[in-house]
Amino acid sequence: MQLYVIPAGAIQTNAYLLVSPERGEALLIDAPGDIWAEVGPILSREKCRLSGLWLTHGHWDHMQGAAEVVQATGAVCHAHVADRLLLENPRVMSDFMAEDLNLAPVAVTDWIRPGKPLAALGLEAEVRHVPGHCPGSVLFYFAAAGVAFVGDALFNGGVGRTDLPGGDYAELERSIRTQIYTLPDDTVVYPGHGPATTVGDEKSLNPFVRG
Fold it and tell me: Which DSSP state fits 161?
């Protein structure tokens, strides 16, 4: 499996493209603005089809390019139902967008149920609900690969903001302690913004939530 880290959109949100040339299949985690312009050529070069789009949460910078991706590829889109309003009526986020964006609603194929794993590229991913930054925040943990994609719940040396509608710092702290810090310490954590880190490093060094 190959991993492409693609910062894109107005505030350089990380999208993650997982590619398996052997299977001719790819998975995209999060879809910031203009992401299709980056992902399309990679899929063509690797001769892979995009089978899935998994959204860590419904905030505008993570879903701005989702409708275009789904339309171009027919990928199955997964997201948590707690963010249904944000994804189906994204104009409700206009007050906290970086600029006035014309966001297209996302047609979610299957609403995520935490505890029910998802599968892609021959791998299984555990889904954990990590609210606090956003009501529908989830992480995707690939135990076999030792990686977790956590959206904006946790960053390298930081945590997600909680001053947006639906945010709650106590809930975010609880999510981090019970759902992220309970992963193996050597798990590589890929956040929605900035560089990767590990569970062990954040438990020891994160100034906001220590393990």
Answer: -
